[in-house]
Design a protein that fits this description.
The relative contact order is 0.12. The chain starts with a helix and ends with a strand. It is α+β, with helices and mostly antiparallel strands. It has ten helices and 19 strands. The protein folds into two domains: 136 residues, Creatine Amidinohydrolase, Chain A, domain 1 (3-Layer(aba) Sandwich); 225 residues, Alpha-Beta Complex (Creatine Amidinohydrolase), CATH 3.90.230. It has a six-stranded mixed β-sheet with strand order 4-3-2-1-5-6, with helices on both faces. Helix 9 runs antiparallel to helix 10. Helix content is 34%, strand content 22%.
């Protein structure tokens, strides 16, 4: 699998007349190697030339991890804390074909790695590596989809357990903690982001942070969180109502958001642009008179990163392909009152789109457990 990914990447580099691509620890390096290297004060860089073997620069104590996984044939240059990385970078760059154009991760590479590269490749011209990696990663294979499906199932099971055990006096922060503990106990991986748990008027904050505010009866509760399986993430949001039955304005807005979510999911299919999907969901909210309160894009890609291509947003005209995975998450946020968001994880199939998330989208009322 990794050798195939390497060949695809080198083909892209050759077509773009790029001599080499450099990766630092993160999702892109994990995608290419299957190894989760740690981004730290000791630099690790994978140089992938258009022709020939990839070359790694890494701390000496990390070389065993690379050799044991052995994603493809490679060269490596190591360094110790005592000697530092300069010589290893010089050796690696000298071992590569002549570097005229080097693609680096604009969103991930630090000044540390960049300066070490430039020290021994002074005349190299830098190009953005993110489009190359995005092209590779945006189409998921069957194994990647199954990993995300597992991550969704774990997150949904934990969410169901947590809301079923909600007790009087619990705070947003405590609910978030119980979600995290539930993921640990049921085999969830590293969290892709800190859980968002908001209650009452704080649900109007699209990316609010859990506080010590109590979750009270007669108020909404918004939970946005996820987990990982084999590195691949899930990302789900549901908005609940605590105690009693929701009526009036909240119920009205919930139904609008639910309809917008359904419209976005229905619009997603091969060949349709993300802009069209965004417009389908947004039109429902605008028709209901709440367009000014839907303040973010309809969705974002999911995979090894919580946010990646394809972004479901106005202006994205790249047609969706089989294997694209992304969220549909319309919302309405009324400052000082409340907010509602319903988020699902989708994958494009030959027949249209499948929702990996299956948690009920009907408004759920949570009764406190005494």
């Amino acid at each position: 699998m990794y050798a195939k990914r390497l060949n695809r990447l080198q083909t892209q580099l050759q077509a773009s007349k790029v001599d080499c691509l450099a990766l630092v620890p993160g999702a892109n390096m994990t995608y290419m190697t299957g190894i989760d290297f740690h981004l730290m004060e000791r630099p690790t860089v994978a140089f992938i030339p258009v022709l020939g073997l990839p070359v790694f620069v890494l701390p000496s104590f990390e070389v065993t991890k690379l050799e044991e996984n052995h994603p493809f044939d490679f060269g490596s240059y190591t360094y110790t804390d005592a000697k530092g990385p300069k010589k290893a970078f010089k050796q690696a760059i000298n071992a590569l074909p002549v570097l005229r154009r080097l693609a680096v991760e604009h969103l991930s590479m630090r000044v540390l790695e960049l300066r070490l590269i430039q020290r021994y490749a002074e005349s190299v011209k830098m190009k953005n590596a993110d489009p190359f990696m995005s092209t590779l990663r945006r189409v998921k294979d069957a194994a990647e989809v199954e990993a995300m499906r597992t991550a969704v199932q774990i997150a949904e099971d934990v969410l169901q357990n947590v809301i079923a055990d909600l007790r009087p006096g619990v705070t947003e922060r405590q609910v978030a903690s119980r979600l995290k503990m539930g993921l640990i106990e049921t085999g969830g991986g590293k969290e892709p982001f800190e859980p968002i748990v908001l209650s009452g008027s704080r649900t109007a904050l699209p990316h609010g942070v859990p506080s010590d505010a109590e979750v009270k009866a007669g108020q909404p509760l918004l939970i946005d969180y996820g987990t990982r399986s084999e590195g691949y993430i899930s990302d789900i949001t549901r908005t609940f109502f605590v105690g009693g039955s929701a009526a009036g304005k909240f119920h009205e807005i919930y139904e609008v958001v639910k309809e917008a979510n359904a419209a976005g999911r229905a619009a997603a299919k091969p060949g349709v642009t993300p802009q069209e999907v965004d417009r389908a969901a947004r039109q429902v909210i605008e028709n209901a008179g709440y367009g000014d309160y839907f303040t973010h894009r309809t969705g974002h890609g999911v995979g090894l990163d919580a946010h990646e291509d394809p972004y479901i947003v106005e202006g994205n005209l790249t047609g969706l392909e089989v294997g694209n995975a992304f969220t549909i998450e319309p919302g309405i946020y009324l400052p000082g009152e409340f907010g509602v968001r319903i988020e699902d994880d989708m994958v494009i199939t030959p027949a249209g789109a499948e929702s990996l998330t299956t948690f009920d989208r009907e408004l759920i009322t949570i009764d406190f457990k005494e």
